């Protein structure tokens, strides 16, 4: 491993590797890691330059782990994100036909996504839970006692399996969002279509804290696109909030909002400002553009100097 | 008149002159002006250095005039305020006794304040409206056809009248607040117990504008102590807000709030930061002291430079 | 005087009488009252059925009196409003020509409105303050020592004066809004373009109270069209708010908001729901129509009964 | 299986079974289910009366599955909750000593919780991920190739394993919260220390929606204790919110707030009102008690009937 290496959530053949290919970072190597925790630890220890891990998805549900790992320990920041479509296929060992399939292994979320297809096409089959979709596929080649795995297409190529059926998710719009995580350093440049991720630790026993947080954002015209309250692991009922909001910390409105959050929270952990995967620019309402902030600065200077009544 | 002269709302013998004495500005002269409009025009034209006019009171009700005159025209700022108790007396020409009093003149608000005393002590009398309480007193000496005036004690001395009864207001806690108004210049120093006065012109057809204004103040922990919506005189339904809030524009929280108001309002007119007449310090909630703002500035610099994750 | 009589703020020839004619209530008589206080007292005592008094205007500034008188004493309610244009004329005794005019009397606010015309047309004249514009006109016929009065056109006819110049206000869009006040009784019917007036007394030492009030209104989609903080006359710094908001108390959204205000305020005085003078219907945002409220009631009944998960 | 049977998230020996015992529902049977999805499906099909599943915990991270399963499909409601401490032990086949342990299996979250203990006591060991802690324990008895499992104590008894070390979590305050889920029916009675769980689907492209939701709660004095935004699975960026708030839907303040949410959300799914596991009563601020609501209802009736001004 070198400083040019990026860890991704493995094994090979998962969506993480697919996401890795989509990002297309030249002159770097990818390397699978067995868990989000391990992937991030490799970044923290400096063994790899960064890690590609899922943060929000409609399949594997690994959001919580990623969020919790980023919220504690030595600081890491997000430098990029990518979203890839989730496609499921029914994979079997070469030679297996659909009529041979009695037992299917997959991750429970993938099972949930393919419930309709399974009911129609394999009504008599039993589905058993696996740790990951790629793990279910890999085990097929290592003597697993079940007949098929539901996993993504890429796993077939990876493990030498056949695809009995493709596109079997009931809802084919599903996607998973991955992030690239690195040690703190120079921020990605503003693109005008950016996202900022924060972890906000609240003062204890503070009802109304979330309303205050949202107000700090909304008075600066900033839209929040994701929020979760997570226990701090000290005891149930002691929370932090993990949020994504539109904009880059170099935007004046985001900078002032972050200062406001810093003042009212027990602790703010900045998890990065980076380009949105979809390139969608935020609607900037009247009064919160950079020039509006600059004009206001100048006006206040005049007021304080006694020039403006 | 000189640059050492201050105009006050006259005639001599009104509360304004009493307030003027309370302020006790050394090496200056006072001079009565016939109306708030005239007093402020004298400041604008440079004929006097400042003017002392009522802004909020429970007697003469002249708030609206003062507010409207300050909201338009060339800019003026408030540099001090003083509050004086409102005391009413029944004044007569020397030789008049209480049994002679059939007709009493006074300003309608003073009449309202003394309603109980009049009903008990002069049940058969008629009260006629006058332009000001001091005007009612002055006219007694100039051949007015009524028998007595309700005015403040100071008017008796001024116009050579007798005091038939003193302290006749039904509620003896009443006070009037006066302000000193000057041309823009260096601001009064921060005392820690200051007030800031603003005029906020709204964009047309903007329901919810006031909620936005209050939110800009409350997110910075600033309490508002007075508010009025006033028509802009262009047409009914087009408003501005005249507000007082706690704090000095040199306070970080007030500065940031004013910048916020500048961004969301069509126009903000700054009418001054000056010591409160009652010396009451605001309760500064957690997170909005000057050092909280300074800490947040430093933290944001670290975040933007990539040093802090 | 009878129960068919309405008092209006006199003397005859003021805007109040003009407003009275515009309202055109059949089978009723009008009668001048010397002050807002007297006019309202006549309603309270039952001597007249109602009173027509100014509540908001750009000329006489009598808002404060009206608001204060309605906020205390035995309850009264507003049943109608009317807005009339403010037109000023220069009135003289028959035979006086413009070159004879040296001294002009008027109310200071009227003077302010005609400042430009006076500077151009009567540059050398002196303006002296009067209690009301109509009073200044009336006094011309009773031996006043000045030469002309600035008042509304109607006063010329009333007092037998000549009009030397008409439409002399610098801004000819000015209007005054009058209200009809009666004893509590059946409310005016909903028209869909109504206004509700309230007086809100706050609990002592409650910073942030106004933000709470506005929030109670805004969560039910109600726009506020006027607000003033007024001292309670007990002592400076103890306030009530006088507000107008869109809608009728029979609207579901207004009813729920009023209940919310009743719960958070020390006292709420309802001053009436009545048709807007301009017939402008409010913009009712998604979720706050009467049927939205009715649907929600029904849904909650289902939830509480255990029928809906 | 019968209507007296409750499914719990199995296999036997997990925290879910421990929680089941704590709840102590008499005259009922427990039965393990392989996944949250299966457990809830058993309730929906009527095969069991209810299911006990984790909703929030610091170990297994299965919150997302539970939330998503409750948010869609035929409606279910929560009728009870219980919180149990999370205790970890190192389990081995009888005869294994600590010096024999080279490879340990467990769920990644359990590994994270025991990281410190492992580094100190088994520095050279390898940890491999398992689908659940109990599954890792169970597989030890079925020929798994690893030497030990980290799981809860109860699993030792269940699977005939030895406890080599107990209480090995780095933080021994950790807990998991479980809920009992049933088909809709009569609600649990109010206890004064209740919680209400909701799923709120937002109208598309509605920035500021969360601020509106929180405002609907806060104006009725309701504190939110958990919030998560979850993708609707239709496409990334289309969210619902899953929230817990204090109080019972039979509380007036909660009822009115729910109606408010019903009016502003695209859809509200009510997931139940039930006693809090910790019996903690909410702080009810001035103005939002049931009697405050009842008083306000009565007052509004008076206002609308014209009796109250």
Give your account of this protein's structure:
4 copies of one chain form a homotetramer. Chain A contains 10 helices and 14 strands. Chain A has 3 domains: 1-85 and 176-182, Periplasmic binding protein-like II (D-Maltodextrin-Binding Protein, domain 2), CATH 3.40.190; 89-166, Periplasmic binding protein-like II (D-Maltodextrin-Binding Protein, domain 2, 3-Layer(aba) Sandwich); 186-309, Alpha-Beta Plaits (2-Layer Sandwich), CATH 3.30.70.260. The N and C termini of chain A lie far apart (64 Å). Chain A has helices spanning 15-23, 36-44, 63-71, 108-113, 115-121, 133-140, 154-159, 209-218, 252-264, 290-305; strands spanning 5-9, 29-33, 50-57, 77-85, 89-92, 103-106, 126-129, 148-151, 162-166, 175-182, 194-201, 224-231, 239-246, 267-275. Helices cover 30% and strands 29% of the residues of chain A. A 5-stranded mixed beta sheet of chain A has the order 2-1-3-10-4, sandwiched between helices. The first copy, chain A, has a 5-stranded mixed beta sheet with strand order 7-6-8-5-9. In chain A, strands 12-13-11-14 form a 4-stranded antiparallel beta sheet, with helices on both faces. In chain A, helix 8 packs antiparallel against helix 9. Chain A is of the alpha/beta class and 309 residues long. Chain A is elongated, with a radius of gyration of 23 Å.
């Amino acid at each position: 491993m070198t400083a040019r290496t990026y860890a991704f959530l493995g094994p090979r053949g998962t969506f993480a590797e697919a996401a890795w290919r989509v990002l297309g970072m030249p002159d770097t190597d990818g390397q699978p890691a067995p868990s989000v925790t391990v992937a991030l630890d490799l970044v923290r220890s400096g063994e790899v330059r960064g890690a590609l891990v899922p943060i929000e998805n409609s399949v594997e549900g690994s959001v919580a782990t990623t969020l919790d790992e980023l919220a504690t320990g030595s600081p890491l920041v997000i430098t990029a994100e990518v979203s890839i479509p989730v496609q499921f296929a029914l994979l079997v060992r070469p030679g297996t036909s659909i009529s041979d399939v009695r037992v299917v292994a997959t991750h429970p979320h993938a099972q949930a996504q393919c419930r309709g297809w399974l009911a129609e096409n394999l009504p008599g089959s039993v589905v058993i839970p696996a740790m990951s979709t790629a793990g279910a596929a890999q085990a097929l080649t290592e003597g697993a006692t079940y007949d098929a795995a539901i996993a993504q297409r890429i796993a077939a190529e990876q493990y030498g399996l056949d695809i009995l059926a493709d596109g079997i998710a009931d809802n084919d719009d599903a996607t998973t969002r991955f992030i690239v995580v690195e040690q703190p350093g120079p921020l990605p440049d503003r693109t005008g279509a950016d996202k900022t991720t924060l972890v906000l630790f609240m003062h204890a026993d503070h009802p109304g804290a979330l309303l205050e947080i949202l107000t700090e954002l909304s008075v600066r015209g900033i839209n929040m696109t994701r929020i979760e309250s997570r226990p701090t692991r000290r005891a149930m009922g002691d929370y932090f909030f993990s949020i994504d909001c539109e904009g880059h910390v170099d935007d004046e409105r985001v900078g002032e909002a972050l200062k406001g959050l810093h003042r009212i929270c027990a602790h703010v952990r900045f998890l990065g400002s980076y380009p949105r995967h979809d390139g969608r620019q935020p609607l900037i309402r009247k009064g919160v553009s950079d020039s509006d902030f600059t004009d206001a600065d100048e006006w206040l200077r005049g007021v304080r100097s006694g020039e403006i009544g």
